[in-house]
Write a structure and sequence with these properties.
Number of domains: 3
Radius of gyration: 20 Å
CATH architecture of the largest domain: 2-Layer Sandwich
Shape: globular
Order of helices and strands: EEEEHEHHEEHEEEHEEEEEHEEEEEE
CATH superfamily of the largest domain: DNA ligase/mRNA capping enzyme
Low-confidence stretches: none
Mean pLDDT: 93
Length: 311
């Protein structure tokens, strides 16, 4: 189940959760073994061995299907998508990486427990059932939610703790798998979107060997892939080198769409197969493209077919 973007409601019919800057994961525990899946149904069990061990210990002989968010935190305790990148794209991390970049799983919903599907139960009942499962210690925890507390007050707390924002959920809402529902409303401090990497432009100076910017695309309401701008900031030099190597492997001759004047950056365009999906922070999307975009990293949990122009 996915949330729509919007202003947080400030009425008693809504519960509020914190919004974590990580990647979504569905947990399936059966026959004393637990597996993790991304939201595009790709199995990611081997990428997070410490979570699997903790989940199996907590689940015991119970059969469970759970929903949550995998995060990595800075030494100050702030969730960091950039830090999580070091784990997201490693299929079988070694012990050194697991120790260097520990991850946590924050559970916020239960879909099935002990053979009973509970997606039709209201939110508050599901949260009570989730709490009763007893996942309360690192690295698998059940964060709190708030009732009858003003949205602005929770937003202020989220901002003070450098979190991504809040998510409001109707207390009587069912869990609707695969649907983006107005029963869940996300209110982030920063605007982020996914974008398809359609190509790159040649760089100059220190960027001559990598790229100047990435050409970004997304699907419009009719399903057409269109240009939504270029991004040239937010990369480390190591990012640029590794990305350029992948882009060279995906090179194609034909343009994917026209480059609209004013949306791109100077430099010769080079096109690639539209396979990679990036996470972009931006100030505004006006229909003429993204304003002040910044690169946050590649997403392995989204497919190009899912990428739409920003809401």
């Amino acid at each position: 189940m996915l949330a729509v973007a919007g202003r947080a409601p400030d009425t008693p019919e809504w519960a509020i959760e914190m919004k974590w800057d990580g990647v979504r994961a569905i947990v399936v525990c059966r026959d004393r073994a637990c597996r993790l899946y991304s939201r595009n149904r790709r199995e990611i069990t081997d990428s997070y061995p410490e979570l699997v061990t903790a989940l199996a210990a907590g689940a015991g002989d119970r059969d469970l299907v759970l929903d949550g968010e995998i995060i990595a935190q800075t030494p100050a305790g702030v969730p960091s998508f950039a830090l999580l990148q070091r784990r997201m794209h490693v299929a079988r991390p070694g012990g050194a990486l697991v120790r260097a970049v520990p991850v946590q799983l924050f559970l916020f919903d239960v879909l099935a427990a002990d053979g009973e599907t509970v997606t039709g139960a209201p939110y508050l009942q599901r949260r009570e059932r989730l709490q009763d499962l007893g996942f309360t210690t690192t690295p698998v925890q059940t964060p709190p939610y708030w009732l009858e507390v003003g949205a602005e007050q929770v937003m202020a707390a989220a901002r003070d703790n450098q979190l991504e924002g809040i998510v409001s959920k109707r207390i009587d809402s069912q869990y609707r798998p695969g649907r983006r529902s107005p029963d869940w409303i996300k209110t982030p401090f920063r605007r982020t979107t996914e974008a398809i990497v359609a190509g790159w432009t040649s760089g100059s100076g220190t960027m001559t060997g990598t790229f100047g910017s990435l050409i970004l695309g997304a699907h419009d309401p009719a399903g057409n892939l269109i240009h939504i701008g270029n991004v040239g900031t937010g990369f480390t030099f190591a990012d640029r080198r590794s990305l350029r190597a992948r882009l060279d492997d995906l090179a194609r001759r034909d343009p994917l769409f026209p480059l609209t004047p004013g949306r791109g950056r100077p430099g010769t365009p080079h096109w690639v197969e539209p396979i990679l999906v990036g996470d972009i922070e931006y100030r505004e999307y006006t229909g003429d493209g993204l304003r002040h975009p910044s690169w946050r990293g590649l997403r392995a949990d989204k497919t190009p077919d899912e990428v739409r122009i920003p809401e």
